[in-house]
Design goal:
- By secondary structure, this protein is of the alpha+beta class.
- The protein has eight helices and ten strands.
- A hairpin with a 7-residue loop joins strand 1 and strand 2.
- The protein is globular.
Amino acid sequence: MFLSPRITPDPLDILWHYATGYMPDFLNKQSGPVGWVRWSHRGVQYLDRFVLKQKRYVMAPQFELRFDTAFEEVVRSCADARRAVIREGPCETWLTDDLIAGLLRLHNLGYAHSYETWTHGKLVGGTFGIHLGGYVSMMSLFNHVSNAGKAAVGRGMMHLRDRGFKMVDIGMVPTHNVNFGGEWTPRWKFEAELAGLVHQKVSLTDDRPCPPVPWPIRVGMPVVRTLRAVRRRLPGHAA
């Protein structure tokens, strides 16, 4: 489990990779095979630097923010290769069938959540991510109505900030306008912060308690950090 870059539907394997700094992506950064990667920099949103851009769209009164009422639909909508952003790009999605199956299991266990916008009783946009201690991620979004995904991300981040979360892992810094102040951070810095976040206890809502960190992750993370620290000291090795 600890060494393979292959994505499996095993929920513990997915949590382990996120907890140790990996993210799912195209192995060549563009298209083709998908696996667990650690790029040189990671996109993050520090919530104390959150900037509410295009407030009239994000806070539009027609959008209602909900959590976890349509998790599978959100994930599959994000994975839909017919979305314009995918059609205009790689025409492929990094959300593989195995990853989706694992995310659904993680959601049932309380380690993955969806942030949804609804209008007139219909799901119109959303994003989703992992939740482990004080670590949360948002790495994709979709719209069925213009600006609905933007509203889900923006309102979701404000909610997380108000609940005491410090940072959202966004994987990449968007080049489009769904960007609330995200920035690139070096891999070593991201992983140092990640270690502290995972061991915090922050809940999404009062009725969604913070899920426990599985013991293999609690035990394994310090070992990984030590091995990486040793490797960084070796000539010719990246962090």
